[in-house]
Amino acid sequence: MSVRLTRRMVLAAAAAFGLTAAALPGGAATAAEPIKIGTFLAVTGPASFLGDPELKTLQMYIDSMNAEGGVLGRPLELVHYDTGGDPNKAVTFVKRLIDQDEVDVIIGGTSSGESLAVMPLMERAEMPFISFAGSKKIVDPVQKWVFKTPHTDTMACEKIFEDMKAQGTTKIAMISGTDGFGASMQAECKGVAGKYGIEILADETYGPKDTDMTAQLTKIKNTDGVQAVLNPGFGQGPAIVTKNYRQLQIAAPLYQSHGVASKQFIELAGDAAEGVRLPAAALLVAEKLPDSDPQKPVVVAYKQAYEGKHGAGSVSTFGGHAYDGLMLITDAMKRAGSTDKAAVRDALEQTKGYMGTGGEVTFSAADHLGLTLDAFRMLEIKNGDWALIQ
């Protein structure tokens, strides 16, 4: 039977014989032991267009940071597992990251379902965790060790309803995905609709593996009084909804969520995407922001760096979530002066005025998101590209 010796076990054994870390095989190299950043992302599967840019972003910026000397004089090491978007795999991989890989922190969780599934593990391990997923439930109620970078689904509902109200829309229909993100946003939108004078006349759903939503959309089309339709969802589902929507020639405006804030959505939906409105981070319209916008230098720099490596038009807000997560956690390490988990968590919670791709972040003990509604921009798809409407 083989026994796997972890570094902690080796150091403990060395201590028993009065040896220092520098006296172990490898000598002084152990003084620059890597800081291990654990991550679990949906690089394959239906959420791959979210997870793929997230992984590419982490790899790109960790390489860049290491070229400049790393963090705290130590190189960063990315330890990654591909979940395919499966919450059960996420749990398995996070256990491995904690128990076997002995990572210092974990960032990631492409989908809400994955992030929500692993949160109890992070709390028990008392390890800082920054999620890249959208559900409000990730940070409400606040968990001591859990933070997140994307705007919440509740904020998306409110931004959309603000725009609808400005258009004089009061009666809508919803068609939502039954995945973790879609179901969460559906519930949040229903919860805040009344605040904006919005009445939901029809409420349909579809599954993650559904390939045609014509039946649900036909019911919506036949519902009297519908002035607009909202589709909470991510992955390929919203693109199918958009295509079916145009095939049925539904005249009411179609709103999507920030879950489709990627050029790939436009490519999947094709011409049917024309006129679709959605809330998203400023990153998608980086160069179109006025020069007076304090976020412009950040989003333009990230966009140029990412597209310089991965091709024009490839940037997405999802890669931006990963960028913000990595920068927030490494900044916390620098301010803590160590990788001690409690110290990093405390420094993270004390973050104030960080300007990222998602907006300006100020965390507190009562707020582990740190963004306001102003961080969202309202966009419309015009001529196959994003247009800023507010």
TrEMBL record:
InterPro entries: BCAA_transport (IPR051010), Leu-bd (IPR028081), Leu_Ile_Val-bd (IPR000709), Peripla_BP_I (IPR028082), TAT_signal (IPR006311). Keywords: Amino-acid transport, Signal, Transport. SUPFAM superfamilies: Periplasmic binding protein-like I. Transmembrane segments: none annotated. PROSITE patterns: TAT. It comes from the Bacteria. The keyword Signal applies. Belongs to the leucine-binding protein family. PANTHER family: BLR7848 PROTEIN, LEUCINE-SPECIFIC-BINDING PROTEIN. This is Amino acid/amide ABC transporter substrate-binding protein, HAAT family.
